From TrEMBL, chain A:
InterPro entries: ACT-like_dom_sf, UPF0237/GcvR_regulator. It comes from Sinosporangium album. SUPFAM superfamilies: ACT-like. It comes from the Bacteria. This is Glycine cleavage system transcriptional repressor.
From TrEMBL, chain B:
This is Peptide deformylase-like. Signal peptide: none annotated. The keyword Metal-binding applies. It comes from Sinosporangium album. Residues 1-23 are annotated as: Disordered.
């Protein structure tokens, strides 16, 4: 069975999450994955649900939650296709884990458009992948933290220099460090 | 050097907050005066527990801390001012959530040592001093030492999902469903 993606934006209030999740439960759906955060003072929820009614019917039910804007779309079923480039045995031995190595990038500086685009371009150029991202503002400060996967063959020192120069052009400082990922 | 009003705390982005600070002579009268200013500024920012000289506009290696009012403090040396402090031992790494007076509105999860030893000099006499700290005092001192190296806690956040806004409880305007003929409202840029 396919999944439905439910996006909800609403004024932050204590009843919002129980109201939205209550609608989904009464519709017979199961919440498979969900994320909620506050952006600009608004509660923003993204959920993947399975089961229950059609996207159109669920859209109508969620729309009845007061004070929210929402969207519900059906997602096609997907198999085991990978977004990772195919790697030969030789490349695997050279580069290690084909998912790449985990890093965390922080960039902070004055609020300025283009920082994320510039950083994203540098990461993509070396075959890296941004797997999670938070961008926040605190006063005049613009802070971005990204989880990255960088292929093992990448010259990380060169990448750091490129990111530092790219962000410096936009008035931002960066720190780039291996992620703590201890799976034991 | 000492003014009537405590110096204001700089907020990011500011170049002094991302610039390594310089070592100073702990017996220099100007450093003694700055230490008094730093302590005076710290007293105005409570319940905050520490300040570093770059935060009040002087890029020298001087920090102040006082966790005596913190409910979760264990070790507590009272008001501490250290010149040229350096971390000489650290153990018991733990995830913590921290914020900073110079980064208002944001907090983040970092990994800090829960037990540390810091050596430095006392302002005025220049006497060497060793401070062993744990829990909140250890976190506070590590945070201040980072300021002396031009680092913010943002530079130590463990992952993207560990950057958090400070919840202010401010009500945002109510959302209204756009009419089909109108584009959706866009706030900000």
């Amino acid at each position: 069975m396919g999944l439905l993606a439910v996006a909800v934006v609403g004024t932050d209030r204590s009843a919002l999450i129980p109201e939205v999740s209550g609608v989904l439960a009464r519709a017979g759906t199961e919440i498979c994955e969900a994320s909620m955060t506050l952006l600009g003072g608004y509660a923003v929820m993204m959920l993947l649900v399975s089961g229950g009614p059609s996207a159109e019917e669920l859209r109508g039910r969620v729309a009845l939650v007061p004070g929210v804007l929402s969207a519900v779309v059906g997602l096609p079923e997907h198999g085991s296709d990978s977004v990772l480039p195919a790697a030969s045995q030789e490349e695997f031995e050279l580069s290690g884990d084909p998912r790449g190595l985990p890093y965390v990038l922080t960039a902070h500086g004055p609020a300025r458009s283009g920082v994320l685009a510039a950083v994203g371009e540098v990461i993509a150029e070396v075959g890296g992948h941004i797997t999670a991202l938070s961008v926040r503002r605190g006063g005049r400060l613009h802070a971005m933290v990204a989880d990255l996967r960088i292929p093992g063959y990448v010259d990380v020192a060169h990448l750091m220099r490129t990111l530092t120069a790219t962000c410096a052009d936009l008035g931002s400082e960066i720190s780039f460090r291996p992620a703590r990922e201890e799976i034991v | 050097m000492t003014g009537d009003a405590p110096r204001a705390v700089l907020t990011a982005p500011h170049p002094l907050l991302t610039t390594p600070a310089e070592p100073v002579d702990a017996t220099d009268p100007r450093v003694v005066a700055l230490a008094a200013e730093l302590l005076a500024a710290l007293r105005t920012t409570r319940p905050s527990t520490g300040l570093a000289a770059p935060q009040i506009g002087t890029a020298v290696r001087l920090i102040a801390a006082d966790v005596s009012l913190h409910p979760h403090a264990r070790s507590c040396a009272g008001e501490v001012v250290l010149v040229n402090p350096r971390l000489v031992a650290a153990s018991g790494w733990r995830a913590v959530r921290e914020g900073c007076l110079s980064v208002p509105g944001l907090t983040g999860e970092t990994v800090r040592a829960s037990e540390i030893t810091v050596r430095g000099e006392l302002p005025g006499s220049g006497d060497a001093v060793t401070l062993r700290a744990d829990a909140v005092e250890a976190l506070c001192l590590q945070h201040q030492l980072d300021h002396l190296d031009g680092l913010l806690f943002l530079d130590r956040i463990v992952e993207a999902s560990a950057l958090h806004p400070v919840w202010q409880g401010l009500a945002a305007p109510a959302l209204t469903r756009p009419r089909p003929s109108q584009p959706a409202p866009i706030r900000g840029s």
